[in-house]
Design brief:
The chain is 75% helix and 0% strand. It is built from nine helices and no strands. α5 crosses α6, α6 packs antiparallel against α7 and α7 packs across α9.
Length: 216
């Protein structure tokens, strides 16, 4: 994968958990950051466009998974952007019927949580390249990096279940209700850990090439 694409993926990966905490950064900053993430995501897909329409995309399991994931990301970015604009209170002021606003809020809430899954899975496709870059300097450092990611992913699994994030993915929760006993810094870490969890799932699904960077 191209280095610029990995940088786009890393930027979206880091910014998305911050975007989830609108109460921490404020509504205006939330909308601005949302546009930044949307543009970064679209730029990433433009650079990565060969995986979307390449006729050779289905020849290997990893290539097919990458191609399918890119299509899901296209839908995620478009729908998140549209619903976000409809719900905007600072940058855009679009008068919409109450029923449309309610539907947009439900869909947007579902989508932003699916973003944790999709962006995490996509980041996992870039993990072999990142591990290769680190292992060229120090293979023990690359192994330590992967071990740290595994530990963070374990916490991500706990956070995913403890916070009931699956309820938002399945649209069974229509109002954002974070655990009041969990402070914002812990929520931020939890969202990041959840994305790391899905990144490792994607990494493991990518096949043998995922482990080449760690060979002696």
């Amino acid at each position: 994968m191209k280095p610029i694409n990995s940088l786009f993926a890393l930027a979206v990966f880091v910014l998305l958990p911050v975007l989830m905490l609108s109460s921490l950064i404020g509504q205006t900053a939330h909308e601005i950051l949302g546009l930044v993430v949307l543009l970064l995501g679209l730029c990433q897909l433009v650079v990565h466009r060969h995986d979307i329409h390449s006729p050779t995309g289905a020849k290997t399991r990893a290539a097919f998974f990458s191609r399918l994931l890119c299509w899901f990301l296209v839908g995620y970015l478009v729908l998140t952007g549209v619903t976000g604009i409809l719900l905007s209170e600072s940058l855009f002021h679009i008068a919409v019927p109450a029923a449309v606003s309610t539907a947009a809020a439900r869909i947007h809430l579902c989508l932003v949580h699916w973003g944790l899954v999709l962006i995490g899975l996509h980041m996992g496709l870039h993990l072999p390249a990142l591990l290769t870059a680190v292992s060229r300097r120090s293979k023990p450092a690359a192994k330590t990096m992967l071990l740290g990611a595994a530990m963070l992913a374990a916490y991500g699994a706990y956070f995913f279940i403890r916070q009931g994030l699956y309820r938002y993915l399945l649209l069974t929760a229509t109002v954002y209700e974070p655990d009041a006993a969990t402070n914002l810094s812990v929520q931020l870490l939890g969202y990041l850990a959840t994305m790391v969890l899905f990144a490792l799932v994607s990494f493991l699904l990518s096949g043998r090439k995922a482990w080449e960077a760690l060979r002696p």
